[in-house]
Amino acid sequence: MIPAKYNLRNLRVRWMTTLLTVVSTGLVVWASVLCFGLTDGLQYALKVTGHELDLIVLRKGATDEIGSGIEQKVAREIASLPGIAKNEQGQPQCSVEFVTILTKPRRNSGGTVNLIVRGLESIGRTLRPGFRIVQGRDIEPGKFEAMTSRSMAARFENLAIGEKIEVNRQYFEIVGYYEAAGSAAESEVWTDLRDLTIARKTPAAVSAVCLRAESPEQRDALTTVLAKDKRFQLNAIRETKYFEDQMNQANAVQYIGYIIAGFLIFGAMFAAANTMYAAVASRAREIGTLRALGFPQGSILLSFLFESVVLCSLGGLIGCLGTLPFNGLSTGTANQFSEITFSFRFGPRVLAQGVMLALVMGLLGGLLPAIRAVRLNIITALRER
Amino acid sequence: MSNSNAGETVVVVREVCKEFRRDQLTIPVLSGINLQLSEGDYLALMGPSGSGKTTLLNLIAGLDRPTAGDVIVCGQNLGQSSEGELAKWRSRHVGFIFQMYNLIPVLTAYENVELPLTLTSLSRRQRDDHVKAALEVVGLQDRMDHYPRQLSGGQEQRVAIARAIVTDPTLLVADEPTGDLDAKSAGEILELLHRLNTEFRKTIVMVTHDPNAAARARRILHLEKGLLVSEVVSSRAKESVQ
Ligand SMILES: Nc1ncnc2c1ncn2[C@@H]1O[C@H](COP(=O)(O)OP(=O)(O)O)[C@@H](O)[C@H]1O
Ligand SMILES: [Mg+2]
């Protein structure tokens, strides 16, 4: 085996080209890892939001909560259907909710955005994963109070504790921040159901009912019951499916991202291949000498592949390190009506993808140059320069 | 014709032809070469440029295979060996000395000499002993941490000789080893080769243009137009006979 220091020192000697190649592969890995981290964050937000046993009940024909309207009296009856899970106090986990959209400015005059304001009762909190108040306090019904997540408060005007948000000339004071395990609830503003319907002057109507079934079988049974009931005119959608559909637009953006990343990866691979071809050409006599000394063709191949992999891995390492400042940073992506706020997630899986990418670029980019090195005729190589 | 206390036969070249093919053209370089060397022989190959000296040397060193005829060196029929077998065989039996030294620029003198030993199963300690011993033979122990660019041409060639002998091969091949050196350095290299031949009983084949260099060998062969035209017993060999 040709010692590794042979390759490492050659990379150092031609540090200019090494640096350029490392920077180009590094940029590509950086961009790709950011993309992976974004996708992972988004998928995570969707995954924690959509509970397997949860159903969202909408008016028949509606595809989302905004376009749905249910008579409050009908919505209340759903809670008495069999198969709905109960909380510790024995109440059915069935939450009647009213959702409205407000156009509100971003902070730092970044234009306006559609904001989801949700009115719900205390049972609704148990349907959100990991719900807890992290600052301030929970709202009190009847007092026109509201709460939201920390990242929403940072991103939009009038959402910080002590500030007031206006709905139909009714002001709601922000009294607390909550967390909900990074789920979609963290992209919303919550208030009391009754207070919100009063402000909206639609006391008889709500938007949707969220409920949790006792088991997958009960969930499917409830779906059938609700769909068949002519009186109710309702449609129950699995929450997991509902959020997936909501994110279709974001998925399209994500695919475009993947395609661009694909081209970039291809480009960086060419950069690596080019660098390695130059290395092989300029070291022909060295290769001939190594062969003459008795190093077999296999070790020449491995040696140059190793050099290429080291080159790209250096880029990969720098690319991965470069994403660290973005870790946990939250951002938003538009779904159909509003924004969903989520965080970059660079877990071991995402970083492993970045490292894998670098390795693959090194191996594929280095393969043809390494094969050329192996196929050099010893005698011609020894005659070089 | 070979020296009196001849040992085992090391090199047998029998009816060897070598042609190179370039496009449709066949270039005959060697035609019907016969040659035999015993252990401890020291042969100088002379002849005009392009006469096929390097080609013959490459065949003897197992870098290339003959078009026809047999090359049997250290018991191995090189014409019938695969690329892999030749590589292994070279690492065991041949030490190479090149005109341009061919040291690896990014490795120190020590590391260059150690390189062929990485193909053996020797331990780190054993390798260290061998490398230091080889560097001592060429008188460069104090330069072992220098890189080739920090050495003079003559010193580089001495490191290359240390690299050639570190595995203790039977045969040393040298293609114009003094071709790129000043007279003083060339003299030192020739002195070293002489010592390796007499003291360490290395069989040496050296290609050279320089009659002074050739005079240090035991035998001189002239190549002309692909044929061995004359065999001259060098003055040194004559001396040793008397
Ligand atoms: N790999 C090769 N392909 C084609 N022709 C070659 C090759 N190697 C050597 N030759 C030709 O063979 C002849 C002898 O070359 P060489 O053995 O290097 O001569 P010398 O070492 O005596 O100067 C030259 O004409 C050279 O051009
Ligand atoms: Mg020559």
Please explain how this structure is put together:
The complex is a heterodimer of chains A (385) and B (242). By secondary structure, chain A is an alpha+beta fold. Chain A folds into 2 domains: 182 residues, no CATH class; 159 residues, no CATH class. Helices cover 50% and strands 21% of the residues of chain A. Chain A is built from 12 helices and 14 strands. In chain A, helix 1 packs across helix 2, helix 8 crosses helix 10 and helix 10 runs antiparallel to helix 11. The longest helix of chain A has 35 residues. Chain A is elongated. The relative contact order of chain A is 0.19. Chain B is globular, with a radius of gyration of 18 Å. Chain B has a single domain, classed as Rossmann fold. In chain B, the strands form 2 sheets. Chain B has a 6-stranded mixed sheet. Chain B has a 4-stranded antiparallel sheet with strand order 2-1-4-5, with helices on one face. Chain B is 33% helix and 28% strand. Chain B starts with 8 loop residues before the first strand and ends with a helix. Chain B is built from 8 helices and 10 strands. Magnesium ion (MG) binds next to helix 1 of chain B. The site of magnesium ion has 4 residues of chain B, from helix 1.
Salient structural properties:
heterodimer; A: 385 residues; alpha+beta; 2 domains; ten-stranded mixed sheet; two-stranded antiparallel ribbon; 50% helix; B: 242 residues; alpha/beta; Rossmann fold; six-stranded mixed sheet; 33% helix; binds adenosine-5'-diphosphate; binds magnesium ion
